Amino acid sequence: MAQGLIEVERKFIPGPGTEERLQELGGILEHRVTFQDIYYDTPELSLMRADHWLRQRQSSGWELKCPGAAGVSGPHTKYVELTAEPAIVAQLCEVLGAEVLGAGGVAAVLGPLKLQEVASFVTKRSAWKLVLSRANEEEPLLRVDLDTADFGYAVGEVEAMVHEEAEVPAALEKINKLSSMLGVAAQEKAPAKLIVYLQRFRPQYYQRLLEVHSSREKPQGIKDADSSLG
How many CB atoms neighbour CB 174 within 10 A? Predict the structure, then answer.
């Protein structure tokens, strides 16, 4: 697989005082933005079932999230993010068992790979950044995104981007520390917007994901969604 940045993140349910707490901790509001995400997969959900998540985001293009190497378990996820279209196409072909389809972009291979829209929603986001300790210039920059989807679901995430697997434990330690300072319970888990969207509006897809992975470890994107059932 082509090299990409490793995203380590932890999702949580934000409260009414989350932004105020971020300010108290020295967080800087980078921007507020509204954007649309469209997710694609085959009719059989071949990508999601393999823990690959293909998204086209308004104004920022295509992204494919691929599972990172196995590591410390917990209420976090770790993905490699591919944003270069040739790398995305190559990985799609590999996961779907297709021949490499020339040098075209992602849009050009949607049809040949039988990829179709499976979810689309609009998100309002406030994006924050902060460094927990100013004393060490090597401290990783943490980002906190507070999202509200147009179908009424609000979720936050604390995120760090690293280049090497060796950097993941330190990033995870900082993420968990900041999460605790924001009042997030140690084992709190919050499903991603896409998973909640599928559960509410594409239940046949959601159930397919649950059924496929009922007898083995679910992909990171779906494994925490069970807690929202019932």
Answer: 20
